[in-house]
Amino acid sequence: QVQLVESGGGLVQAGGSLRLSCAASGRTFSASAMGWFRQAPGKERVFVAAVTWRGGDTHYVESVKGRFTISKDNAKNTVSLQMNSLKPEDTAVYYCAAAKGVVRITNRDDYDYWGQGTQVTVSS
């Protein structure tokens, strides 16, 4: 079994920055991709960013391009999300996710493991 643990959420003013981290653990960990999704109150969980584990290809939802950067450390089994120029509309619970096999990288149904989520609140 794989466990994902997020950290780094919090409260920040608009224009500020936060860095989220996700650590994967388990007897064996092998992912094809890891990503971040977010869920605002009353809304569905949606794709934010992802990275392929071997090639390091990155993908972003349009609304965060140029502001968020996803990175990975294969040796430590961690993935991070650097969030700059935060906006109130970025407020949500952010979830780390990992996919084992072939994945439509923006599709949450293709991810096999999820973290517990970390709250990000951006005040105006």
Give the secondary structure arrangement, pairings included.
Blueprint: E1 2-7, E2 10-13, E3 18-26, E4 33-39, E5 45-52, E6 58-60, E7 68-73, E8 78-83, E9 92-99, E10 113-114, E11 118-123
Parallel strand pairs: 2-11
Antiparallel strand pairs: 1-3, 3-8, 4-5, 4-9, 5-6, 7-8, 9-10, 9-11
Mean pLDDT figure: 94
Q: For the report, how would you describe the main beta sheet?
A: 7 strands, mixed
Number of distinct beta strands:
11
One letter per element, helices H and strands E, the order comes to EEEEEEEEEEE
What general outline do the C-alpha atoms trace? globular
Structural class: mainly beta
> Could you tell me how far the N terminus lies from the C terminus, measured between alpha carbons in angstroms?
40 Å
Percent helix: under 10%
Would you mind describing this structure in some detail?
The protein is mostly beta strands. 0% of the residues lie in helices and 52% in strands. It has no helices and eleven strands. It has strands at residues 2-7, 10-13, 18-26, 33-39, 45-52, 58-60, 68-73, 78-83, 92-99, 113-114, 118-123. The strands form two sheets. Strands 2, 4, 5, 6, 9, 10 and 11 form a seven-stranded mixed beta sheet that branches. A four-stranded antiparallel beta sheet has the order 1-3-8-7, with no helix packed on it. A hairpin with a 5-residue loop joins strand 5 (45-52) and strand 6 (58-60). The chain is globular and about 40 Å long.
In short:
With 124 residues, this protein is mostly beta strands.
Question: What attributes characterize this protein structure?
Answer:
52% strand; 124 residues; mainly beta
